[in-house]
């Protein structure tokens, strides 16, 4: 039906002219807040990719459909932390996770953009896809309302562990929101695998950026 077809959107230029002259900082505005993101040249995960902009914009524009207030939100592959910061501003209890080498820059960005604000204090934790999930995030303790993932699928060897991680955290009642640039056959193969496991809907497409935003929920038999 028409209601199920994705909306076609454009990634808005939500960043504002640079106040600082350093090349490594980007300034964005979401939900009425200026967000300053420090990128890191050493690490692939520490650059703001288009999927992060697409999901941030979508969350800002669809607060009634996806109300994050007081919800438990886990971001996997958080990178620079932009999406987690936006979720935080929207009132969520956020846990931002990534590989150990990214955590220092991630923590810096998240703390500088959320301190002294009237919001739930976000948490930053190590999460290596597919590793130690039962130990670090036991099901008995951790249940998330939303799993957020942007730009997590590209040419890397961890696609199966990534899918296993999504499956681990996506419990009945959990909504996975995944935004990604689709360029390679591997991207579409991952999507196909995701569709085999979850109920999947394309919420939005950003054709100029080749980004699709998907919602996935666990199949309840």
From TrEMBL:
Q: InterPro entries in the record, alphabetically?
A: Methyltransf_16, SAM-dependent_MTases_sf
An annotated Gene Ontology molecular function: methyltransferase activity
Gene3D superfamilies xref list: Vaccinia Virus protein VP39
**Alphabetical list of SUPFAM superfamilies matching this protein:** S-adenosyl-L-methionine-dependent methyltransferases
Keywords from UniProt, A to Z, are: Methyltransferase, S-adenosyl-L-methionine, Transferase
Q: Which CDD domains match?
A: AdoMet_MTases
Q: What's one GO BP annotation on this UniProt entry? A: methylation
Keyword field contains ATP-binding? no
Matches recorded under PANTHER family: HEPATOCELLULAR CARCINOMA-ASSOCIATED ANTIGEN, PROTEIN-LYSINE METHYLTRANSFERASE METTL21C
Name of the protein in its database record: MT21C methyltransferase
Organism this protein belongs to: Cepphus grylle (Black guillemot)
Q: What is the lineage of its organism?
A: Eukaryota, Metazoa, Chordata, Craniata, Vertebrata
GN (gene name): Mettl21c
């Amino acid at each position: 039906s028409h209601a199920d077809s994705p909306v076609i959107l454009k990634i808005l230029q939500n960043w504002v002219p640079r106040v600082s002259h350093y090349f490594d900082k980007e300034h964005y505005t979401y939900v009425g807040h200026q967000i300053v993101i420090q990128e890191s040249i050493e690490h692939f995960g520490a650059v703001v990719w288009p999927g992060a902009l697409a999901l941030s914009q979508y969350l800002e524009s669809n607060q009634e459909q996806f109300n994050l207030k007081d919800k438990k939100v886990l971001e996997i592959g958080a990178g620079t932390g932009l999406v987690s910061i936006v979720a935080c501003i929207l009132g969520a209890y956020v846990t931002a996770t990534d590989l150990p080498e990214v955590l220092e820059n991630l923590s810096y960005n998240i703390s500088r953009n959320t301190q002294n604000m009237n919001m739930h204090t976000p948490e930053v934790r190590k999460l290596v896809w597919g590793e130690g999930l039962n130990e670090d995030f036991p099901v008995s303790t951790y249940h998330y309302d939303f799993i957020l993932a942007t730009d997590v699928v590209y040419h890397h060897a961890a696609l199966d562990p990534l899918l296993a991680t999504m499956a681990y955290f996506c419990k009945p009642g959990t909504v996975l929101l995944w935004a990604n640039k689709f360029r390679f056959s591997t991207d579409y193969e991952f999507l196909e695998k995701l569709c085999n496991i979850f109920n999947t809907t394309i919420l939005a497409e950003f054709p100029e950026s080749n980004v699709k935003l998907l919602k996935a929920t666990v199949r309840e038999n």
